[in-house]
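By way of example, we now present a protein record of this kind:
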Amino acid sequence: MYRKKISSISILILFFFVFSIFPMESVHAATSISVPEALTVVPAVPSKVIVDKAGWSVVQLTSSSTSLAIGCNVYRSDAKDGTYALLGKATKANNDYHYKDTNLTAHKNYFYKFAAFNYIGESQKTAAVKVTTKKVIHKPSTPIGLTLNSIVASAGIYKVRIDWTYTYGATSYNVYRSTSERGAFIKIGTSTNGLYIDSNSGAANAMYYYKVSAVNVSGESALSEVIPAKLTATFRAVPTGLSVNSQAAINLSWAIVTGSTGYNVYRAAKVDYAYSKIGTSTNVTYKDTKAAVGVEYLYKVSSIDENGESLKSTEVTGKLADSSVTVLSEAVKDLEYKYESKDKLKLTWDALKNATSYNIYKSLYKDMKYTYVGSTNKNKYVDEKSVDSATYYYKVVAVNAGGESSKVNPLTVGAKVVLKRQMENIDRGINAVKAANGVLVSWRLLGTEAQDLEFDVYRDNVKINSKPIKSSTNYLDAKGTTTSKYYVRTIGGKSKESQSETVTAWENNYKELPIRKPAAGINKAGEIYDYTANDASVADLDGDGKYEIVLNWAPTNAKDNSQAGYTGNTYIDAYKLDGTFMWRIDLGKNIRSGAHYTDIMVYDFDGDGKAELTTRTADGTIDGEGNIIGDEDKDYSNAKGYILDGPEYHTMFEGATGKALDTQAYEPQRGAFATDINEWGDTYGNRGDRFIASVAYLDGKTPSVVMQRGYYTRMAIVAYGFKKGKFVKQWTFDSQFDEVDPNGLKYTEYRGQGNHNVSVGDVDADGMDEIITGAAVINQDGKALYTTKLGHGDAMHFGDLDPTNPGLEIYQVQEEKGSPYGMDIRDAGTGKILFGVKSGIDTGRGLSADIDPNYIGEEIWAIDGAWNSSTGGLYSVKGEKISEGIPSSNFAIWWDGDLQRELLDHNWNGYGGPASPGTISKWDYVNKKSVNILTATGTNSNNGTKGNPCLQADLFGDWREEVIWRTEDSSALRIYATSDVTETKLPTLMHDPIYRLGVAFQNTGYNQPPHTSYYLGSGMKTPPQPNITISRGGTEVKIK
């Protein structure tokens, strides 16, 4: 560039020139800054302008910085090609320019341009950026779902609690009351949650009627439907004295309930405890005329009054059988089956001469508990609740007046179809990493491809392998350099030959991606906080076949739920794998920051080939296009920094843009969050504000998002599909429900049976996923399956941990000091404990991984003291104690060339100390010690002593895993990949159903490493091809 010396006269002329074209406030600092000699040209035009926020009266924008600029002017117009007026100067922070425009008109188009300036002059203006301010919020819709929760009487005062479903857009609710259903309703109070408690001194047995309206800045909705309440000290009294008399029929009787208008009668077969309502009665007796002979039943009764239905009574047992008649000693013969339709299975058999009827039972396990299906007096039966993707075992038992036959022959009914899961369409994922003796090139074998698919490798357009590569998906190029360019081609096979994209070898064993650190802030208490990159997830957000990274930014004042204090906002960013920034979501001031508040589920929920993101949101959340959810001006934090009031939302965001697609009221709701300690275990926002989320294929074909609230006491879970751009609620599980599981345990027994994490998978081999909360499993239909009752835990691992045990296993550590086990492994389908060790302490860490080839299956271990304890006992999956010493207990990773897993951890340097870089070690099973093989110098681990990376997953290359850590200053992410050769050929782990879901919910609570649905370790067998399809909505294939 041509340069010239600037004289003092020239500088004076320059200053007069600058002040003549710029307002004084735009260059107010000019007189105190000397002009650099090289500054002789105007700056370049800013390359990008981003809309950070578009409210109804405010717009926030960010412009990229440019070389030679000392500032940036902002212009606005009402038309794209209109006259642009100067608004002022943008503020510089983190190398970007930011501007906030206020006092705007709602729902109006504005156009903005930025221009960089220096002492020479102003650059050209950027292209116009259109911003539409938000529409004024409409009045909320009328509240629905009003229920009368309780009436409590004390010293003549009645407390009436009513609940309702949150209304989207409502910031508060007005509650109205009347003494007659059609009378005048008077406002008696307000609420910011979905409940209200009315304390009044009305007369006993008086009737009150309630209605609720929703309110926001635009007004009040219409009043809801009415809900009546009768003031009584015996609210929904439960019947007592239930008894049974079984003769020709089963006759029930119970004590009268004062004030009752009727009773509901429920029945279940004792083998499965599946209660259903069988009738009603207006008196205190009931005759069950439809009970099948020989079946042992359970009965319960509830009362009904003006306030609704009571809980069910204690149960009694009844069975129709004549003890004077000898039961049959024959089994039915020639039992056959035929599927009449998808869910209808017809059973036929030869009739027995002396049988009067037949009872039908079925099970998913041949030698486990059978459930009662039904009874018939014919030699055929149609089961209309069969699932043709599962293998069942049926028993048809012959019956006479004496009861059921003593002999029975089970029938195996094989699955008719295989459910194939909708899975993302990812590309070959070729990667090249500089190794000690060349370049390691690796690529994916997709889950839909044949195991014997062959490949050729090309460097700089020249094939470099002498013969087709068939036994692996990696190749060490001894002549490769960091300037070499590689691609691979498939050879033959049933599918069309294809070529991957071309990639250049990494210069190191990691790739660094620049990221945009949010600006530091000051909270309401005047405390300064900064930001660090935290948990991450991956998915194909834009449909290009490559993963993008979704990153959670945590403020340095993030809190555990047990800690008071204000936090900064939580931000969620999206980046492409080359570091390109895509969008940012600001969860806003009404989502508290901390490990248990925000779960980010990133997945292709609607099957369109592009992933979405869903998480909990609130008033003031800003989507990736700057649109504000709810009321941006509301702040619900209390004096201790907790957020116990105000609406909670659940939003689905578009992956490519971060745009909010659908927002609904969040469920499970808070309930009596801050008033009733029995609801969540405390009233200050600790246990009731702990969230868990996961992705599950509840129908075996398409993904759902599953949201959970609470696990220390009450545990509530809601599942949603996402269809045609809208959430579709599928089911709710709640430990407060008046129900029982198949083993006869009340749902209240599921209180406290959740972990700080979750697992998901098909535990019962029906093709559909169950939710593993920790010590409990919830079936795909939202019904409780079983609980071990071992309580809450901090770590859990799920997969085929023991290949000698049929099915899948769950390894868990327990927090309860009085638990019979501090660590235990169980059969995932039945809950049977296979092996356990009592610790007598809060066992806070435990891990399962194959680290010793001398033992088949994974090894399991747990700490016996502090988080970094080096003792506690290393065991085989069968319970054989290998050593007292243990490896680290945080994460495990498939990294080097063998089938064992390595240990992923960090060099912990304490809170507030130097960075704690990530590490990978290998367990020396001969000398029983860990040997470091990687220290990621310059990185930092996340979440204190947990030491987890941002993410661990099979991101690209062959089946082995990559790991993402943040740099010490959170200016970048580093993706580390192995440079070791492996001779093992496996499909990408991201096409394994359990592993892929494990990556999706890895960021939930206390992060855990993902596991596979098959045993991956020494002595493994070739895994079956995963049942997946790269088609929208999944599919099913008939079994020939």
Notes: The longest strand covers residues 207-216.
